[in-house]
Design a protein that fits this description.
The protein is of the alpha/beta class. Helices cover 41% and strands 16% of the residues. The protein has a 5-stranded mixed sheet.
Length: 189
């Protein structure tokens, strides 16, 4: 039986914080009913599935690219870097990797004996990628809520997680940019 890994990222469209990717290998028979793209789940459901996946996966790993890396190499390249890091941190190597999106990270293009497939909307179409989206989303939200919200009190990271909400933009205009903001990103008021 082939070992399949799903990889997805979150945080591409944010104004602040890292882009986070997750790679997961899980027996397809252990993927619970109701798993879908993290954006289609309530926070409570995401947390429930996150705990379940952590408990039942064969291997899970996280890769990140910081806001500094995003500003230096652009968001697409930083996303690919975070995916490579997630893949490289797996404790089990798969036979097949399915990545959400249309691009394959450069270092993953010529892997020996591992087939890498980019699939547009894989987070909706492929259950293992849906699982990765949940791991990535819950992980990033925790970072933004539990670390950055305390460090940068007043910006409301626990609410918007760095996305371009009215609250976030208002706080930037009032308080200025922090060192976790992406300086190359533009936003309108």
């Amino acid at each position: 039986m082939k070992i399949i890994c799903g990889i997805d990222e979150v945080g591409r469209g944010c104004l602040a914080g890292p882009v986070i990717s997750a790679a997961i290998i899980i027996d397809k028979n252990l993927i619970p009913y109701g798993i879908k793209d993290s954006k289609l789940l309530t926070p409570e459901k995401r947390e429930y599935f996150f705990d379940y996946l952590i408990e039942n996966a064969i291997s899970i790993s996280i890769g990140a690219a910081s806001n500094v890396e995003i500003d230096e190499i652009n968001i697409l390249n930083a996303t690919m870097l975070s995916m490579e890091r997630a893949f490289n941190n797996l404790t089990v190597k798969p036979d097949i990797v399915i990545i959400d999106g249309q691009y394959i990270p450069r270092q993953m293009k010529n892997l020996d004996k591992i087939k890498v497939l980019p699939v547009i909307k894989a987070d909706i179409k492929v259950k293992s990628v849906s699982c990765a989206s949940i791991i990535a989303k819950v992980t990033r939200d925790k970072i933004m809520r539990e670390y950055y919200d305390k460090k940068y009190y007043g910006y409301g990271f626990k609410n918007h997680k760095g996305y371009a909400t009215k609250e976030h933009i208002d706080n930037i205009l009032k308080l200025g940019l922090t060192d976790i903001h992406r300086k190359t990103f533009k936003f309108s008021c």
